[in-house]
Design goal:
Length: about 325
Amino acid sequence: MYLLALAQPQRFSLASFVEDAPVTVELGRGRRWSPGNSDNRSHGTVRLVDALAHSYNQATVRVGMQVGPDRLAQLLKVLAGIEAEPNPSLILGSTDQSPYAMTQLYQFLASGGQVQPLRAVRGVLDPEGRLLKRYDTAPAPAQEGDSIAARLVTIALQQVVNSGTARQLQRDGLGRLSPAGKTGTSNDGRDSWFAGYTGDHLAVVWVGNDQNQQTGLYGATGAMRIWSGLFSRLPSSPLQVDGKGVEWHWVQAEGSYVTDADCPGARRLPFVAGTAPDYAPCTPDYLPLPLDGTAPPPAQAQERQPGFWRRLFGGGRAADPQQAPAPAQPPAP
C-alpha cells in the first residue's frame, strides 16, 4: 500500500503527515470496520515513515483508503499472482497468502522495482558442471517511477529496523547490515510474519501451528527471531539504497517545509527528486539560548544560524547529496 502511495509524489512522501486516530470505514449494508492499533492507543499526527515503521494501523488505513483497495488488489495480482478481494481490510494485509507469495512481493522491493518470478530450481547441470537447462531469465529493467518508489519504501523499512517494531535486530548486532524489514501479526494472533532483506539476501519467515490456533506471538517475537538467527550466521552484504532519483532534505520538526539542518528538531528525509516542499528558514525565535538563559545579540544569533539572512533574502538552499544517512547503531502487512 505504501508503495502505491509513494508512487504519487505530488500527493504523498515519507514526510507527509497523517492522523493516527480512530477511523471507521463504511462497508455497506450497515456494516462498519473500525481497526485499532496493536497497543490499543492512538498516536495523533504522525509522518508517513513513522506510521510504517511502527505499524500504526489507523494511520495506514487512512492512507490506504485514499490510495484505494481496488488498486492494492491489482498490485498484489501483478507482483505475486495473489487473487484478493478489494476489501478495505486488505490494506492491513488480511488475505491468505503463502510465504512464497510474500517473498515474491518483497522481491520487487529488494531488487529496486524489478519483477522476476521466483523459482525453486534455477537450472540443471550435468556431472561435469555444464549447464543442461536454465529456467530463470534476466528480469526486465525496472520502470523509473517504480524503482524510485521501491527505494523510498526500502528506506522506510530500514527505519522499521532502526527505530520501529524490528529494532531488536539492532540489539542482535544486525545493524551492520542496514537491513530493511517488516513485522506482521494477524488480528487473531494466529500468524507471526517477518520479511527482511540485506544487500544480497531476502528471507520471509512465517510462524503458525497446524491447528490454526493462536500462537501468542507477534511478528517481532516469533518470526523475526528466526530471521535474526539466520542472518546472524549467513554471510551477507549491507543494504545500500541507490540514490538515483532521490533527494535528501532537512524538514521542520512539526511543519512541512524544508529547513536548515541545525534547526531544532529538524529531521532528514528523502523525497522524489524535484518534489520536496518549499524552503522555510529556521527563524531566530527557534535559535538555542546561551546557558545563562539570556537572549543572544543579533550578531551572535546570525552566527548560530549560518547564512540565515542570505537564505532569507537570497533564496533557498540546494538539496543534500543523494545518499542515505548512516544507519543508526543503538521494534501489518
